[in-house]
Write a structure and sequence with these properties.
- This protein is α/β, with parallel strands linked by helices.
- Helices cover 45% and strands 17% of the residues.
- The protein has 25 helices and 26 strands.
- It is globular.
- Bound molecules: adenosine-5'-triphosphate (ATP).
- One of its GO terms (biological process) is recombinational repair.
- Keywords: ATP-binding, Helicase, Hydrolase, Nucleotide-binding.
- It holds the Pfam family UvrD-helicase.
Length: 774
């Protein structure tokens, strides 16, 4: 047994021996690094000494260039070497703190000697570089630790399955190089260690979970089979954690051909980006690329519209139900997320191909250089059987030719002469020098003037050429608007309420606003006309909070990343956007070809105490199946208050108590940004509270106040639901938002309300919470 003193002594001795080896390795590396550093400094100082610069003739110039190149290569090789050592030293320092966290003894079938495998965040060899003192947790054999309890066990390698018997499984807690505890486990990963980890306080950064990865999470981390790996996991089941460890795993598995530059994570908001940013560096890996879908859309829409973000749309859906267009917009949001709308756009593209594409004039100095009508005629003069994007390319070529002709003609214009007279001295000298280098021309005044004119016109035409190359002559705004106009109002495939949807959309587009629900269709239509943009750099894409994406968005992502493997993680119970009401999302299996998808389901929640999970599972349909990890705390409390003033007094007292009880992050979660702002102004005089809005990129410990949709993906020691009254959370479609808010709590959940509590609590068993008057 692990508490056997002899065993503990043996393990402590081994730990010391390993630490010793780490020290020795570090010393060696430092010596080597010192040498390299000197080399680098020396090379930089003497870079030009060994190079004979000679550019008198071509041959000499080539020789000079090649010796510069050689010298630069030498320098960069030394620099790379230095960086590598720096990285290795950082790994050793991590191992010095916590060398390993697990051990398995495994006897392979038909072998007489067992393998003793110690698992840590990186591997370490012995002095002779023969035996592994520590195995990286991502090594094939390490899988045993996550997948089996003692008994028959097996693991996969490149060569096939290795079978045998696991004779021992042991866990260690090693901190600052000290053995804090160790225990042998029977079950997969002992509850003890997990309980200890989960009982800790929340941080403003996520932590790595390598020591306690659960079997089903390990399957997600190591899955390499399918193009689409789809994970439906209940709140707090470790989806984001598994995704990040999976990134680390992939970087290890494919270390020679994959770098962090080839992996991208789409996350729900910028705050989440900073929340997860420390996990990979903690594991010694570089962070993957991170973005939000909105960032991608924004970049592409550019300045053409005032683009709405998903949070503004959410705010509208939650607060504007009294506005006259509300229903029309809601229907529009749902329709525009669907594949039906995508099909309608496809039909529209065929219609455009005939003769309805809209172009912009190409203008110069306030005059039309090439009219939209001419561009249109050019487009329609081309063979109809050629695809639109190819025809656009041909139009582009012709426009560039035409522009070259116009550029020549422009040189004779009066303004060019005027501008050449107005050139300042520097500009003139520059031109003059250029002319001088052109043999025998400097005394030819006419020639000089012509060249000057050429240069001036060229400078002015450059932005036009650039715009043409970027296909700016297509009027995408007008084309999208036309889709909703009288001209094409009656589509065979248009939905019942198409007129209403058109009315609302046109109103927004005319104000140069692009509602969030129109952003994806707008870009899709643009791509159908210009040709698709394809990203080949990203080889693995992770989409967290996948329930927020519509089938239409997925169609666009699939086109953008045709060869990318995707890991798609989400929870249908947290689908809070209006387009997901009774509609498929990125988690729906019908979006994927059967043979290309692998689906995993996580039912156990690790984040919250058993009492919080028992409460929150009553909030959603099918919640009975959600399992709680067995960690105890207080039951959530519902506190009735008389009015807003009373509510505030109670919240202030509760938040302060939670902090003094040792909770480090306390979140007051409101329904909307509007409610958050109002509450913040009323509370801030008496409570040290930080306001979080969509522009907040980081948060620190203490009390924060934020709307529920920004709390997505994040967790807090204690959560206060600001106002769970029936007047605030009254509609069925707010259920998932309410569930998302409550499931952010790790240890403590308190809900306040005025007069009557929300009807969304109706199915929560009364013994799952305490109810009191404040
Ligand atoms: N195997 C594990 N060992 C230790 N901690 C774990 C493990 N799995 C999950 N956790 C912890 O549970 C919490 C929730 O994990 P995570 O945020 O990854 O869940 P999620 O499924 O993405 O949640 P949500 O959908 O609610 O945002 C985190 O604190 C995480 O560290």
């Amino acid at each position: 047994m692990a508490d056997n003193n002899q065993e503990l002594l043996r393990e402590t001795d081994r730990l010391h021996a390993v630490l010793n080896e780490i020290d020795k390795k570090a010393v060696k590396l430092k010596q080597h690094s010192g040498g390299l550093k000197k080399d680098v400094i020396h090379l930089r100082k003497t870079f030009w000494d060994d190079i004979k610069v000679n550019v008198d003739n071509m041959k000499e110039a080539i020789e000079t260039l090649s010796s510069v190149k050689q010298q630069a290569e030498l320098l960069s090789e030394r620099e790379r070497g230095h960086q590598l050592i720096h990285k290795q030293l950082a790994t050793l320092s991590r191992l010095k703190d916590s060398a390993y966290f697990g051990r398995v003894d495994f006897l392979e079938n038909d072998e007489s000697k067992k393998d003793v495998v110690y698992l840590g965040t990186a591997s370490l060899m012995d002095e002779n570089e023969e035996e592994f003192l520590i195995y990286d947790w991502r090594a094939p054999i390490s899988s045993l630790y996550y997948d089996y309890s003692p008994g028959p066990a097996q693991y996969e390698t490149m060569e096939g399955t290795v079978k045998g018997e696991m004779e021992l499984k042991r866990q260690f807690i090693i901190r600052n190089g000290q053995m804090k505890s160790m225990f042998d486990t029977g079950v997969t990963i002992g509850d003890e260690l997990l309980k200890e980890v989960l009982g800790n306080h929340a941080d403003s950064n996520m932590k790595s979970i390598v020591a306690t990865i659960q079997k089903e999470q390990n399957q997600i981390i190591r899955n390499e089979k399918s193009k689409y790996l789809i994970v439906q996991g209940v709140a707090g089941s470790g989806k984001t954690s598994a995704a990040l460890q999976r990134v680390a795993y992939l970087l290890y598995r494919h270390m020679n051909e994959l770098t962090a530059e080839n992996i991208m994570l789409f996350s729900p908001n910028p705050l989440f980006n900073s929340y997860v940013a420390t996990v990979l560096p903690e594991l010694g890996e570089d962070n993957m690329q991170q973005s939000t879908f909105q960032e991608y859309v924004e970049k592409r829409v550019g300045k053409r519209f005032k683009l709405e973000d998903p949070f503004e749309q959410m705010e509208y859906v939650l607060t504007a139900d009294k506005e006259e267009n509300y229903q029309a917009r809601l229907k529009g949001i749902q329709y525009k997320a669907s594949m039906q709308f995508k099909e309608l756009i496809d039909d529209y593209v065929s219609f455009l191909a005939k003769d309805q594409l809209i172009f912009k004039h190409i203008t110069f100095r306030g005059e039309i250089l090439i009219s939209a009508q001419t561009i249109k005629e050019t487009f329609h003069s081309l063979d109809m059987s050629i695809s639109i994007p190819n025809r656009i390319q041909l139009v582009k070529e012709r426009l560039l030719k035409e522009l070259a002709r116009k550029e020549k003609m422009e040189r004779k214009q009066e303004w060019v002469l005027e501008e050449s007279e107005l050139l300042n001295k520097e500009e003139y000298t520059e031109v003059y020098q250029e002319l001088r280098s052109d043999e025998d021309t400097f005394d030819d005044i006419d020639r000089e003037q012509r060249l000057l004119a050429k240069k001036i016109v060229k400078k002015h035409f450059r932005p036009i050429i650039k715009a043409i190359k970027k296909l700016k002559f297509i009027d995408h705004r007008a084309i999208y608007r036309q889709l909703f106009s009288g001209k094409v109002k009656q589509w065979e495939k248009s939905p019942e309420n198409w007129e209403e949807i058109c009315g609302y959309t046109l109103k927004r587009l005319k104000q140069k606003e692009l509602p969030y629900e129109d952003a994806t269709p707008f870009l899709y239509l643009q791509d159908r006309i210009e040709g698709q943009k394809i990203n080949t750099r990203i080889r693995y894409l992770f989409i967290d909070e996948a329930q927020d994406y519509s089938p239409f968005q997925f169609a666009v992502l699939k086109q953008l990343f045709p060869n990318t493997r995707m890991t798609i993680l989400g929870d249908f119970n947290q689908a809070i956007y209006a387009h997901t009401i009774n509609a498929p999302t990125l988690l729906s299996s019908e979006l994927y070809e059967k043979e290309k998808q692998d689906r995993m389901v996580l039912m156990k929640s690790y984040r919250s105490t058993r009492q919080i999970v028992e409460f929150t599972k009553g909030l959603v349909a099918g919640g009975e199946a959600i399992e709680a990890f067995n960690r105890n705390g207080e039951k959530p409390s519902l506190i009735r208050t008389a009015d807003q003033d009373h509510l505030h007094r109670k919240i202030i007292g509760t938040a302060k108590d939670q902090l003094s009880n040792g909770h480090q992050t306390v979140a007051i979660i409101c329904k909307t940004a509007q409610e958050t702002k109002e509450a913040f102004h009323l509370l801030k005089g008496e409570l040290d509270v930080q306001l979080m809005d969509k522009e907040t990129y980081t948060f620190t410990k203490g009390i924060i106040i934020l709307p529920a949709y920004l709390a997505k993906g994040i967790e807090f020691d204690a959560v206060i639901i600001y106002n769970a009254s029936s007047s605030i959370y009254s509609k069925e479609f707010e259920r998932k938002l309410f569930y998302t808010a409550c499931t952010r709590a790790m240890h403590d959940l308190k809900l306040f309300f005025i007069a009557e509590k929300t009807p969304l609590l109706r199915d929560v068993p009364s013994d799952a919470f305490t109810l009191s008057n404040g």
